[in-house]
Amino acid sequence: MACVRKRKKNGEEVYVADWRDALGFRRMKFCTTKNEADAVLADAIKESQQRTRPLVDPNVTVEGYGAHWLAMRAPDLKPRTVQSYRDVLRLHVLPTLGEKKVRRLVKGDIKALLVAKRGDGYSRDSVRIIHATLRAMLAEAVEDGLLTANPADKIHRRLRLVASAKARS
């Protein structure tokens, strides 16, 4: 439930606008006046209730979205880059994640793919390229409204640490 509360912060009286966003995360904003807090809360509620319309079918698979993404990005990229993206998707991403719906992708799916590639003997640089391609594609899916956050973000650092520890032993 969204509300405005009166609190003391550092000895001063403030008003707290407290609500949950569209993803269910709790948000708070501290304001100096009640009117300001009410306005913040009204804007937040209005924003969380607006339905975002994805630019592509919300039930699209990774394979379908990969084709769409390549078609949209190709005019802005060098031919060699487009070919590299196409090869990474065809050889590495689509065999594992191709049938999965984009909106159902989670960090665990991507991490499992990257760990499996390292386990199959691919070099760290090859896995980095696979991850970068997937991260770029999913960043575009966030912009298109299919995802609220990119599940491929902030995965590689942990993988590098695991790989380094494994190499030392």
Question: What are the defining features of this structure?
Answer:
DNA polymerase, domain 1, elongated, 3-stranded antiparallel sheet, 2 domains, 6 helices, alpha+beta, 169 residues, single chain
Q: Could you please describe the fold and organization of this structure?
A:
It is a single chain. The chain is an alpha+beta fold and 169 residues long. It folds into two domains: 3-49; 62-168, Tyrosine recombinase, N-terminal domain (DNA polymerase, domain 1). The protein has helices at 34-49, 62-73, 79-97, 107-119, 124-143, 156-168; strands spanning 3-9, 12-20, 26-31. A three-stranded antiparallel β-sheet has the order 1-2-3, with helices on one face.
Summarize the structure.
This protein is an alpha+beta fold. 55% of the residues lie in helices and 13% in strands. It contains 6 helices and 3 strands.
